[in-house]
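Worked example 3. Consider a protein that binds 1,3-dihydroxyacetonephosphate.
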Amino acid sequence: MRKKIVAGNWKMNKTLTEAISLIDEIVTGLKDLVKNDDKLVIIAPPFPYLMKAAEMTKGLNQIEIAAQNCHSNEKGAFTGEISAAMILSTGAKFVIIGHSERRNYFKETDDFLAKKVEIALKTGLKPIFCCGELLSERQSGNQFDIVRNQLKNGVFNLSESEFSNVVIAYEPVWAIGTGVNASPEQAQEMHAFIRKIISENYSTQISENTTILYGGSCNAQNAAELFANPDVDGGLIGGASLIAKDFITIVNSY
Ligand code: 13P
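Given these inputs, the predicted complex is written out as structure tokens:
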């Protein structure tokens, strides 16, 4: 059975004091969840708070910490960058790779992202690999080709055992931070497509075991109908993950 996951990507938000309060509220609000086995909550705060976040959630099996990015090299002269080993050493277990903000604002290429996935896995971090089309690509009907290529170049060259440690997040760029979420039908259609191509590249068993998250204006109001789709295994939440009450409602929506 694949895991159901709700992950909060805080992006570049919150001071340390605010981060501590938010984690505190989330942990308190989710204390009943920690007894339920098939759900996992992931919190992805900015780098400086990873260690504190890991400390505050230590021993809670249903809550894990993720970084929002890592570098593709193991270590070395890369001023200002953070390695997968550094992230792992804080207690974080996951890393978001290939978010559209990294692809678009920081010009991260498919090759660079594939190297990040490789080093993350080699180090022992589980990648949450993001894919998704631009508005213009959807309008021209190219969304399936775009997503197929992102997955082919980013993760489909992994071995079966490596791939089984990857979570996929479908985040249509036009839905991120816009207040316009993909409809439940659009989300289900793309998630079913992603599962189909995973099955073609690996096997039905692997595809059935892969968690595929939806991200893009997912909030406390629309999460339940998005998560009700058979191929939507939870969400990668931006804005709504910054408000404890909303994030908890989202977690309780599946
Ligand atoms: P929003 O939920 O703010 O649209 O952001 C989605 C996202 O980019 C999560 O990684």
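Take a moment to read the result before moving on. Residues 4-251 form a domain with the TIM Barrel fold (CATH 3.20.20.70). The pocket of 1,3-dihydroxyacetonephosphate is lined by residues 9, 99, 171, 176-177, 215-218, 236-240 (CB under 6 Å).
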